[in-house]
Amino acid sequence: MIVGIDLGTTNSLIAVFRDGRPQLIPNALGDFSTPSAVALDETGKLIVGLAARERAATDPGRSAQAFKRWMGSDRTVTLGDRKFRAEELSALVLQWLKADAEAFLGEPVTEAVITVPAYFNEAQRRATRTAGELAGLKVERLLNEPTAAGLAYGLQDRPDNSTFLVFDLGGGTFDVSVLEYFDGVVEVRASAGDTRLGGEDFAHAAGKLFLERCTGLSPAERERLLQDPTLWWRAAEQAKRDLSERDQTVMGLMLDGRRLELELTRADLETATAELLQRLRRPIERALQDAQLSPTALDEVVLVGGATRMPMIRQLITRLFQRLPLRTIDPDQAIAQGAAVQAGLKARDAALEEVVLTDVMPFSLGVISSQQIGQQRVGDRFSPIIERNTPVPVSRMNRYVTVSDNQSHVELDIRQGESPVGSDNLHLGKLEIELPPLPAGQAEVEVRFTYDANGLLEVDVRDVQRGRTASTLIRNTATEMSEAQIEQALARLRMLKRHPRDEEENRYLIERAKRLYEDRLGAEREAIQHWLSQFEQVLDTQDGRAIRQARVQMREALDSVDGGFRF
Ligand code: ADP
Ligand code: MG
To answer: Among 307, 328, 349, which residue terminates a domain?
Structure first.
């Protein structure tokens, strides 16, 4: 069975194409969204999802979140006494989702379509494939997230030349893409974004308002809160979400057993985030410019990503595009649904007509060159061969001449990026060719870049005078895991013990109770301690019926303390 997976920075979802439509698959807690969070408990057992997010509050040294940000890098994080790369943490999330899907579908899940941001570079894409492999999934295809959103909204059923703009505001990233449908092909015409802007910034703004305005805070307390956002981010997140539903809310914060409160209106939050809203404009303009489209020429504007639930986002879009955006699919779910549509296409589900997807290369690929400007030779210039937002597969050629007399060879330094300074761009590889001895400017090489839909870059160079050629296939970068490393990681991940899936909710309730215990003081704390002991006692009996009852009681008890918010 092939599934579609939205492997998000904040939340991940899994879906399947069944009975002619994409269907989201619930996790063991009954939620469609699984937080992309991993932790090891005190016994070294693995926790993933909401329970891990709870645990991150009480045990940050054994928890990891937002690791999608370092996909494709060598960075590791230590959980307890073990180091993990981003591929491994992502693999644990994927494995978790796979288990949920297998429980739901009652059959093995072996293949997946996994979505990635359009701006992901080669190293990041390969890391995502590796994560899939480590999770025991054959990655059928990496699908750009905006393309997935387009498929979920049926762009492929529209007339030729239809265009969609996909506006995706997630937890920590912002992504805009222009899609076009023509003759059975869905193409990303352009993409742009800001990898440091997302819903969290809006929650942060709510938190800062609290620190500025709450009158019950002593200067020392204010300083402490300023230094340690973990003390208030939950309260801020909740206030932000409340303000998506209503005009005002009370932001409540427990500090040393005292409840501090601040009334906050939607207008307050909007004023405080005017600058963030401003920052959303530039990537929209860039994407439209690259796609050579005016805002009114678009057929639809599609909103995805949890943060587009904020009314101010809808208003901004309505103003900018002079129309209402499409948001009939839950904005958290559109990408996973689209991934399932693609999975259905792969499995050739009868309900789907063949659609071909092409994507664009979201970044420029080229080589470092020197330029002769008058008498001066300027080195370290970036010379793009395939420009950003070119549809793939693509093959392009540039010519270069020597800069020195009798230059015996050229060494191509292959880079990816948008900086005019060659060495500022990501180094992908090198390719050398020998040249005949000729005066500067007379020996010539042709450099051809060919990029296919699977993300492989082939570089060919030809010495024009003698016709000799050299070529290289770029799929390796220094940050990529080697076959041996992947084998080792597989063995290590296999050794990690996990709690049985049917105990997932118990685990979540325990982690949540611990977090609330840390948060509170006095009588409330005693009550939480008492519930926790009672609950653990019942769990020890291993009496299924009693455990189910205790679970309901525990959930209600905790809801009475924190209002039952889940994030
Ligand atoms: P990602 O793609 O980063 O995994 P999601 O698309 O799941 O992220 O979006 C997560 C973001 O959506 C978080 O910042 C969260 O606060 C925000 N969000 C979720 N629900 C709401 C809401 N009702 N109002 C405002 N923001 C919300
Ligand atoms: Mg997302």
So the answer is: 328
